Amino acid sequence: MSDFVEGLKRGAKAFKSALGPSRYEAGNIKVICPHCQNDIFDEGSAQLNTAGASLLNLDWLNKSAKILECTKCGLIQWFGKSLEKIN
């Protein structure tokens, strides 16, 4: 039973670290903060709204972008294409 509990603890720790801040590549180039040169970011997403879709309450049809927030200075960078998490 203790092996099972230890396995659950290891799995929870790995899951938590997978969701936390990380390093990224965009277009096979390592992402570095242009302001402070940090290379660790929190990932998020943001919707790219258009006036026409917003007027008709169709914002859910708009594209979204990935954003990275620098964990050191807070600068936000926007990416229209996919990001790759690296170690």
From TrEMBL:
Judging by the UniProt lineage, the source's domain of life is Bacteria
Q: Which named protein is this?
A: DNA-binding protein
Organism source for this protein? Desulfosporosinus nitroreducens
